[in-house]
Amino acid sequence: MMKLSLRSYFAGLIVLLHFTLSLAAHGQDQSSPAQPTGKEQTLSTESSARPLSNQMEVGGSYFRLTNGYGYWSSGYTRAVYQAGNNVWTGELNGQREFGDAGVYFAAGDTHTFSENWYGSVTLGTSAGGFFWPRFRSDSFLNKKWLTRKQWITTIGYGYFGAKDSHRNNSFFLGSTYYFAKPWIVEEGLYLNVSHPGAVFAPSGFVAVTHGTNKHQYFTAHVGFGEEGYQLIGPAATLAKFESQDVSITCRKWLGVNWGLNFNANYYHNAFYTRAGSSLGIFKEF
What domains appear along the chain, each with residue ranges and CATH number? Predict the structure, then answer.
């Protein structure tokens, strides 16, 4: 069973950051696959993705958990609409976890300020489901660098207010580099402070994408670090533990403006492992 110490986590992240940022490459068309947003208590950098067209996606997921924690399942609808310098997003997600069920609602806007600057804000709330937030907000500010605008740096802040007394503040630093087609490399560092107790829980991720727009994208994602808390019941909480996750995503166009979005994910912590997949069908307009 793999466990990462805090020291090895930071060492690994620094090496990966140095490797990514020291590579020399040519820029590419900065189109990346739109990914589902998550309900985890850290920021989702996918809120800063730049969709290339109006689109809608519907799908579902199923995950099995070990140690008697049962299963997770969900069904979702997501939409993207562009108007001028704004890209509006909406999400409706019905989820079942740890024996309870609820629905999450979110809406966001990504606004282009200039040739080099753009930012996004997403707000969410829910009905039912102790695991969903009573209120969630995520905001990001992005800047493009270099002659072909192929390097993007991102800072972000997120707030997750649970339906009990737990709260989480998450600060994000990351970057994305668009190499000569068809490679994209992204890495990020989360600095999470969870309450009660002001529990500090850093974590990070590295993701590599291969592909082109209107054809297909393959993305490999590795995340590792600590979690301040995780709700597993209305009055049950896991606190201050390490976790790791690995996922593979394939976004495949089957026609000019439609296709499938498949994700397989494996997650591990000291209490249980979780494995499963999601499948969605998207349509561009």
Answer: 6-284 (2.40.160.40)
